[in-house]
TrEMBL record, chains A, B:
The keyword Nucleus does not apply. Acts as a magnesium transporter. It is found in: Cell membrane; Membrane. SUPFAM superfamilies: CBS-domain pair, MgtE membrane domain-like, MgtE N-terminal domain-like. Keywords: CBS domain, Cell membrane, Magnesium, Membrane, Metal-binding, Transmembrane, Transmembrane helix, Transport. Homodimer. CDD domains: CBS_pair_Mg_transporter. It holds the Pfam family CBS. It comes from the Bacteria. This is Magnesium transporter MgtE.
Length: 477, 477
């Protein structure tokens, strides 16, 4: 429990404080907590020279999260050698911090007994994360090598769906009956050595083991021994159903600013606990992945094997090829007009492009608003009106700008009028499509981040070409 | 400290557990913790009928975060009436959960004394968040209405830069000298009524008030009274410099899975504490805002006054108009070719569009990787090679697909060859631009999420047209 460094000075990350003799230079981190390239190279050189001791001296002051970064930053073909040289500095905690692909790669070389040893050191949730993606046979070998208690805990976690609260939770928690007093709870905690030492709240349960209240440790510590837990606990709790999707768990932690929460089974009985440090990376991932989905970049994991990445992206590009062909066929309808006035071919891309940009703006706002549960049928209509007003305003400004600009360049009032009108109309299409498509997809339980862009682009491209070339055909030829 | 509900049953959010008599139906939340439209309408109707009591009965079981949602979901022109009807249910906590624009709107109607009353109830960080965006005169009026202690704390927080750790931190924390024993700490906590009751870790400081260790409350509770804090605390700490940007604070909490952290001034002295519940919304916002920046949608706040939104988006559209004009001028160079073969006008959009899509994929991955501090000069070259290989692979597959497809449609081998080559070349451009542009911007300390898309689109549009029309001019006319 007490981990003591060699030095009594705190480690300060970052360059802000030159006064700290044990800051920056020793930990090898830059001001963004990234490993300095020079530091990584020093470690790689030491490993290459066969000087494991030097490598270990360099790495040992690092936090496990930074050692994980070091392995990720090292070239793939040298990671095995680095891990071998660092020995037990690459412990269970480092493995649980590692990128999934990098970890699979490193673990692939280990014996099941070794993986089991790592798993036994970790909280259930971290152990599960480490082995859940292994091949079934390998996973079974690891489970067989665990002691029965750890095995049971991990198997029980694995019985819940992937990405559910059941996978995220840990079973080690502190639950007490409501009649216990503060003093009795403290004595119980002191006397039971096999309790977890990392918890932030105590759950109060009834005889059926259903949670009836939660108590922050700070409340226990600041109260006299005689107070009953029933009088100290907060009865309003946010409980997590064990089968809840991890994305919803993360949003719930975020919305209610939770530090930990009780996980309950379908009968309402307490079966586990989730702490905020286990969901904080999910909160960040879920919030960050919309940009990747919207652009069809899949997971966007820079450590993913290249062929998997190629496949994901290619699917998206081929789908978009379809929409591009539809847009091209619209242009094809107007070949005669274009032969007659080739200038239109140069300008039509501005109409479709401006519509595409405006549509993407609306889409990005809607996708975030939907992902953060800000959209309900109470405000959908308000959003449509809002985006349409923005579209009309921006379309008018751009239309006037482009109309005047093109008149100054080409001196053809008819062309400029057609151009400006098409810009305004396509902005209106973009604004409407940018709201209606994600909202409709969301109501049909389709992730709007994944699918919206294709449809919005198809609308802004095809209708942009159609209005511009159509108006040009009618009024200019 | 002890908040007791009327019922001993826990509130379970969500529809998963029909067994709970106090779940779903009473709280008015759907399975995503969003307020049900029917519930909102019932509240709005009650307010309209002048039946404040009914409105309050409906709303009182809600968590402050949900009351904030209710005000946000209510139409803007009715929010004042709803807040008035709900009275003290719209307390300080609700205000601190409210969207900035909605809060400003509501607070605008209140007397400075009322705002000061709310501010006094809140932790320093929440109070600061509430008043930092007010007009200077209004802010001063609120500060004047506060009691001297609260005023000093808030003024001191306001003296730090916006979005810095100094604004986020709270001053109320527990710090003890290292010679104190567990028993002495517990006695100290019990005897001092004016200490904060919400803390998760105890900071151990030296005589100069510099933090030398951190101790989780669970460690204090599970240890005998005689143990010295010096033997219990963890000496490796992650300290937060008071002037650190909140984005870096959030990333640091996320990377090192912190629950709370000590904030230190330039001299290394402990001046405050940040807890994870204060940064969890920043983690989500920072991760989610890249999609908004990349698409030029500004903050993407659906509650922002419409004219502010129009302005932000218009700036972006006008910048993109510039790049669209450059692309158009490239097409203009080939007017003769297009007059000769108008089909090219239909197909050229496919070349530029496919390049744009591939470029956006790479860009999204790079923007996320840079934002999460995964990119250093150690792996930049590896990323360039990786993306280029993906680009060549996808470009080849698409090129062959499009070449064969267009040959089957048009039966012109020369055209198909030009088409396929242009697709491959433009994919390569997209892959390189998608990595090099964000990396270069990042190294120049320009936010790659904001500025990259313009440049990447310019490259894929202009060079897409140039290669396709250029090759066509050479080989087909």
């Amino acid at each position: 429990m007490s981990e003591r460094g060699d030095s009594a000075e705190p480690l300060i990350h970052g360059e802000e404080f030159d006064t700290s003799p044990t800051g920056q230079a020793e930990t090898g981190l830059d001001e963004d907590d990234r490993l300095k390239p020079a530091f990584l190279n020093a470690v790689l050189d030491a490993v290459e020279d066969g000087d494991s001791e030097r490598a270990r001296d360099l790495v040992s002051p690092l936090h496990p999260a930074d050692i994980a970064d070091l392995l990720e930053l090292a070239p793939a073909e040298r990671r095995g050698a680095v891990a071998a040289a660092l020995g037990d500095l690459v412990g269970a905690e480092v493995l649980s911090e590692l990128n999934d692909y990098v970890r699979e790669d490193l673990i692939g070389d280990l014996a099941p007994e070794q993986v089991a040893e790592f798993a036994a050191e970790l909280d259930t949730d971290d152990a599960v994360a480490m082995i859940e993606d292994m091949e079934e046979a390998d996973q079974q070998a690891v489970l067989d090598a665990l002691d029965p208690e750890d095995r049971a805990a991990i198997q029980s976690a694995l019985s819940y769906p992937e990405e559910s609260a059941g996978r995220l939770m840990q079973r080690d928690l502190v639950a007490v009956p409501e009649h216990m007093t503060v003093g009795q709870v403290i004595d119980y905690l002191r006397d039971n050595d096999d309790l977890t030492r990392d918890f932030w709240e105590i759950f109060v349960v009834d005889a059926a083991h259903k949670p009836i209240g939660t108590c922050q440790l700070s409340w226990v510590l600041t109260c006299p021994r005689g107070i009953a837990m029933a009088d100290l606990m907060r009865r309003e709790q946010t409980l997590i159903p064990v089968d809840m999707d991890q994305e919803e768990v993360a949003l719930r932690f975020q919305k209610y600013a939770l530090i930990s929460a009780a996980v309950v089974d379908a009968g309402g009985r307490l079966v586990g606990m989730i702490t905020v440090d286990d969901v904080v990376h999910i909160i960040a991932e879920e919030a960050g992945e919309d940009i990747l989905r919207l652009s069809g970049a899949g997971e966007g994991d820079i450590n993913q094997p290249i062929l998997m990445t190629v496949r994901t992206r290619l699917v998206w590009l081929v789908v978009n090829l379809g929409t591009a062909m539809i847009a091209a066929s619209v242009v094809g309808l107007f070949e005669k007009t274009i032969e007659h006035l080739a200038l239109l071919a140069a300008l039509m891309g501005i109409v479709s492009g401006m519509g595409g940009n405006a549509g993407t703006q609306t889409l990005a706002v809607m996708v975030r608003a939907i992902a953060t549960n800000q959209v309900t049928s109470s405000n959908t209509w308000r959003m449509i009106v809002r985006e349409f007003r923005i579209a009309v305003t921006n379309g008018s400004v751009l239309g006037v700008l482009i109309g005047i600009g093109s008149y100054l360049i080409y001196g053809q009032p008819g062309l400029s009028l057609v151009f400006a009108t098409a810009i305004l109309l396509n902005n209106m299409v973009a604004g409407l499509a940018g709201v209606l498509i994600p909202v409709t997809l969301d109501r049909s339980n389709i992730d709007p981040a994944v699918s919206s862009a294709v449809f919005v682009t198809m609308m802004t491209d095809s209708l942009g070409f159609l209005t511009f070339l159509g108006l040009a055909t009618i009024f200019l030829t």
